[in-house]
Every structure is written in structure tokens, then in C-alpha cells.
Protein: ATP synthase subunit delta
Organism: Salinimicrobium flavum
Amino acid sequence: MQGSKAALRYAKAVLSLAKDNNLTNEVNKDMILINDTISNNEELQGFLKSPVVKDNMKKNALLEIFKDVQGVTTGLFGILIENNRIDILDRVASTYRELYNELNGVQVAKVTTAFPLTPALETMIQAKVKELTGNEAQINNVIDESIIGGFILRVGDIQYNGSVKAQLNNLKREFKNNTYVSKFN
């Protein structure tokens, strides 16, 4: 992904500055807000990436949209604009969150489901996370209707695929390898 190394460098610098000012929690809240706002707004994404829009307009817009954020965060806006990197702001925010969670020992479990998680399903997934890692995790739910049902769980470098799509693919593979079934094709 283009800009991910730069995003990591900026995120590390912001985390270091936030630590120096004892603002890691507050800046993390800012980064959650920034990441969610930009991810959910294609118009804002286009605005930040547009070479036609002047830098001072981008900075003023960000300061207006995120007027309640910490000074460390507004400083990030300025440095990204100054270095012509404002287009990676959402990746910097996302990377900061990952570094913050790592710093605080918080595991994040990415759970892909065909529909939003119910409290009962979330409890079941939390049990699976505990079984796989020995610890609980913060759950980040991603909706992907193509998995049909079940869920795909990813915690760190561990992945558990309990989706209906994966089970159907396994069944299809077994049928292809079965000599009795392949004679009927």
C-alpha cells in the first residue's frame, strides 16, 4: 500500500509526542474520530487528495471539521500539509491506533461476518479469541456478505475461517478429489 511506510513514521512521531505530553488516550480518541470520519466520507477523501484544492483550504477545513482535537493532532495536520502528505491522514490515524493498542497491550480481533454482530455472537467470538490466544480482545466487525454466513476471525497473525463460503470451498475440493464423484462429471 502506497504511503504505509510514511504513515508509520508519522504515526510513531505523533505517538512519541503524545507520550511526552501525557496525551496518548486523548490523541487516540482523535485518531479514531479522524479515521472514521475520513473512511466514511468519500467527498472528504477526494477533497484531501485533490491537487486543485489549495493547502490552506485543506488545513482550514480539517481544523473546522475536527475543531475539538488536541494540539498534537492539529500539529499533525500542519506537518502533513507542509510535506504534501495530507492524503495519508487516514492511514496515519489508523496506524496510530494500532501502535497505541500495541503499547497498551490491547489485542484487536478483526471479525468478518455477513451481517452485523449480535451480542450473543460477539460473546461466542470472544470465547474463540480466548481459546486461540489466551486473552480477550477488542472486536472490530467488518461486514462482507460474500462469506454467506459464519465468521472469519483474525487476531494478530492467527486466522480462523469459520465462514460458510470456506466450508463450501472445502466441500467442493473434496468432491473434486473423490474418485467416485469425479466419474459422474
